[in-house]
Design goal:
- This protein has 276 residues and is of the alpha/beta class.
- The chain has one domain.
- Helices cover 41% and strands 17% of the residues.
- Strands 1, 2, 3, 4, 5, 6, 7, 8 and 9 form a 9-stranded mixed β-sheet that branches.
- It is globular and about 55 Å long.
Length: 276
C-alpha cells in the first residue's frame, strides 16, 4: 500500500506539471511536444519498476512507421521511454478518463473500427504525422495478445505509408518486438505473463494496481532492420515480412536468446504491386 500511494502521488505531481506544458507545446507546435512525453514515460517506467533492455536501435530514416506486437498498456510507456513516438489507437481510448487525455496530448491517431470507410481519413492523418518527421507506432495485430505469442498482423493501416510517400520518394517500416521476460529478476513463464499483459476483458484499474504493487518487471524491446518501401508497396507482403520479423524477435526474447539484429530481416521480400 505504501508503494501504491508513493507511485500515485509522484505520478500525480508529474501529471500536474506535465499536462499543461504538453498542452501548450502541442497548441504552439513547439519541439517540446516530442520530448515532454519521452521524459514523462521515462519517469513513469522508473515508478512502475520497469527495467527496459533495448536491442538494436530506432531507425534514423524518415518517414518511419514502427510496427510492433502488443500485449499491454505498458507497451505505451515502454516504447515512449525509448523514443518520442505517435501511436495509432482505437477510438474508445479517446474517451477514457485521464488515459484518453494522455493519448490526445501525445498526438495519437484514433481509429474507429466500426467505420471501415474511415480508414482513408485515418491513413491521411497518419501520413501527416509521418510527413512531419514523427515515428508512428502501429500495433500490427490490431488487439492485445496474452504476451506469449504474436497474433497475425492486419494490413489496412499499412496504407498510411503509401499516403505519406505520394507519387515518389520512399519510406521505412521497422519491425519492433516487445517482450515481458522477468518478474523480480526471475523468468516470468507463461503462467505469470498476465502480470504484465493486459488483454481480453481484463479490468484496467486492478491490473494497473497489480503492476505498481509488484514492480520489478523486465521488458526486452528489439528493433529489427528497417524495410525500405516505395509507393507501390504490397501491403500483404509488407505485413507478412514485419509479422515474421516481430515473431522471431519475440520468441528469441521470451526464450532468453539473443537476436542477431544486425542480420537482414526481409530485404529480399518483393514489395512491389498493391495487393487488393
Amino acid at each position: 500500500m505504501i508503494r501504491i500511494i508513493y507511485v500515485a502521488v509522484m505520478a500525480g505531481i508529474l501529471s500536474i506539471i506535465g499536462i499543461p506544458l504538453q498542452w501548450i507545446s502541442v497548441k504552439l507546435q513547439l519541439p517540446s511536444r516530442r520530448w515532454i512525453p519521452l521524459l514523462f514515460h521515462k519517469i513513469c517506467a522508473h515508478l512502475f519498476g520497469l527495467r527496459v533492455t533495448v536491442r538494436g536501435a530506432p531507425a534514423r530514416e524518415r518517414p518511419l512507421l514502427l510496427v510492433a506486437n502488443h500485449s499491454s498498456w505498458l507497451d505505451i510507456t515502454t516504447l515512449t521511454s525509448i523514443v518520442p513516438v505517435v501511436f495509432v489507437a482505437k477510438s474508445e481510448i479517446a474517451g477514457w478518463p485521464l488515459f484518453g487525455l494522455f493519448a490526445k496530448l501525445q498526438r495519437s491517431v484514433f481509429v474507429d473500427r466500426s467505420r471501415r470507410q474511415a480508414t482513408g481519413d485515418v491513413n491521411r492523418t497518419i501520413a501527416g504525422r509521418l510527413a512531419e518527421g514523427d515515428p508512428v507506432v502501429l500495433f500490427g495485430e490490431g488487439k492485445a495478445s496474452d504476451g506469449n505469442r504474436v497474433l497475425p498482423f492486419r494490413t489496412a493501416l499499412l496504407g498510411a505509408l503509401r499516403e505519406a510517400l505520394g507519387d515518389g520518394g520512399h519510406g521505412f517500416v521497422q519491425p519492433v518486438s516487445i517482450a515481458y521476460t522477468r518478474l523480480h529478476g526471475l523468468p516470468m513463464g507463461r503462467q505469470h505473463r498476465p502480470q504484465a499483459a493486459w488483454y481480453g476483458g481484463m479490468s484496467l484499474l486492478p491490473h494497473l494496481l497489480g503492476v505498481i504493487r509488484e514492480g520489478a518487471l523486465d521488458v526486452v524491446v528489439t528493433f529489427g532492420v528497417p524495410i525500405e518501401v516505395e509507393p507501390g508497396v504490397d501491403r500483404k507482403a509488407l505485413a507478412r515480412a514485419t509479422e515474421d520479423a516481430v515473431r522471431r524477435m519475440t520468441v528469441a526474447a521470451l526464450s532468453g536468446r539473443d537476436f542477431a539484429v544486425s542480420a537482414p530481416v526481409s530485404t529480399a521480400v518483393s514489395l512491389a504491386g498493391e495487393s487488393r
